[in-house]
């Protein structure tokens, strides 16, 4: 289908942030991908499982409250997982970054306003 | 039922044929749980089944949109297909993206539930009006996701079809250091609810509930429960085998009987 879905349209905006190479919206529990944008294809199922595991282990370690953001930093790339509370199960916004070009603080700021912007 | 030898051999093949022909149709799937698959221009836009909560039920259960608001939106759309997203968005209740996510999640969940048991048959009819429908999904994508889900579950606790019929109970005590989603699920699990019942009660997907239950089992947070069989309740008279009568038959206790005419309360003989 040539038609771009609402999800992919929303994700496309995040690709305009410098250094962002791939964005996916995934169900944090089921691992279902609702849409993706950008040249870098993320293993969304794995991203979902990673977030679930981190959430579990953090709670076992005594953390309280809900998991919000996971930032994984490698030599050249970064992966940001942002949990979006919604109705039903949470969604996960998975963002791949090129470390040299991306400003993490700026990316996080964009992720903060993503739900609000998407609603606009 | 169109289960002829020369026709499509399973529901997936039926959907594929409809996709190639770009047809508008509704596929009635018979069986337990069975359901209705709504196809528009060859793409699956909605699946209704009693085995998984639909988009409407998840939305209302979550409280994201109030019943009265939802009723007003439905009335404004007059069951015109495809208008709901615009109407919800125009009223500021739900964005187009949120509505899409909701509908897509519900279709995949229902498709997964239908795949848990072989259908008894199916029938392709003309398009039945479908009030709540999302973006069209190709049968290939649905089949791929369903396969992924079955494989993900089958690699865990027990086969997905067995887990779907299981009634679970939390191991006591429920630890406090758990993500809130697990705590809510454990509190709702009461030995009488199947994953499907829990999904309806919590406004979540049946697959997501089953996946969480398998995880909770791995973490040792569920009590082992005897597997439930698919057999219907027995209707045969159950009598003790001859010679195994209990030595002391229970004394027959009868309630005191009222003797007609013995009491004159109210002073009237009602007969």
Explain what the structure shows.
The complex is a heterodimer of chains A (120) and B (271). Chain A has a single domain, classed as Dynein light chain 2a, cytoplasmic (Beta-Lactamase). Helices cover 35% and strands 28% of the residues of chain A. A five-stranded antiparallel β-sheet of chain A has the order 2-1-5-4-3, sandwiched between helices. The longest helix of chain A is centred in the middle third of the chain and has 17 residues. Chain A is globular. In chain B, α5 packs across α6. Chain B folds into two domains: 144 residues, no CATH class; 59 residues, no CATH class. The C terminus of chain B is likely disordered. Chain B contains ten helices and four strands; from the N terminus they run αβββααααβααααα. At the A-B interface, α1 and α2 of A face α2, α5, α6, α8 and α10 of B.
Which helices and strands appear, and what pairs or packs with what?
The complex is a heterodimer of chains A (120) and B (271).
Chain A: H1 6-14, E1 20-27, E2 33-37, H2 44-60, E3 69-73, E4 77-84, E5 91-98, H3 104-119
Antiparallel strand pairs in A: 1-2, 1-5, 3-4, 4-5
Chain B: H1 11-21, E1 25-30, E2 35-40, E3 43-48, H2 55-62, H3 67-77, H4 84-90, H5 96-114, E4 121-125, H6 139-154, H7 160-164, H8 180-188, H9 195-202, H10 206-218
Antiparallel strand pairs in B: 1-2, 1-4, 2-3
